[in-house]
Design brief:
Blueprint lengths: L6 H4 L1 H15 L5 H15 L2 H13 L4 H6 L11 H14 L7 H10 L2 H24 L5
Helix pairs in contact: 2-8, 3-4, 3-6, 3-8, 6-7, 6-8
Length: about 140
């Protein structure tokens, strides 16, 4: 499989604007491990190999366990994730699969754990990783 287009090279201003969102998120109040779980779960749903590779590596570097990474796809079926994490993972799934819309109950569950600013940051993290997934998949960015 060959890459289709090098967007950072062809449209550097657009790429830098997207990267600006990523830089903003790195300064947010979102716990770094939770941020990587958001990125991993959305990337699993979207089937983005490049992002899965990157974010599993990043998650391990900051202390995420192999077991939780392996079970992330089945987070509802395990006790390894906190209720707070499960609320965010549910929101991640519903935002990623947006055609099904985001349930009020899902949103309220997240809002019960986080203040309004943190909820906004979590939503921006989910939206941003979905955009990165779509760019990487469409451009056929290769792993390795």
């Amino acid at each position: 499989m060959e890459s289709r287009i090098d967007i950072p090279k062809v449209e550097p201003a657009a790429y830098q604007a997207m990267y600006g969102l990523e830089k903003y998120l790195s300064t947010s109040k979102i716990d770094p491990i939770l941020l990587e779980l958001i990125k991993m779960r959305a990337s699993q749903i979207n089937g983005c190999a490049f992002c899965l590779n990157m974010h599993s590596t990043d998650a391990r570097k900051i202390g995420e366990t192999e077991q939780r990474l392996y079970l992330l796809n089945a987070w509802k079926e395990t006790t390894l994730f906190s209720e707070k994490e499960k609320a965010v993972l549910a929101l991640t799934e519903e935002v990623t699969l947006i055609s099904h819309h985001v349930a009020d109950a899902t949103y309220q569950k997240v809002a019960s754990f986080f203040n309004e600013q943190e909820v906004a940051q979590i939503i921006m993290a989910i939206v941003t990783i979905n955009a990165w997934n779509r760019l990487a998949i469409t451009a056929k960015v290769m792993v390795g």
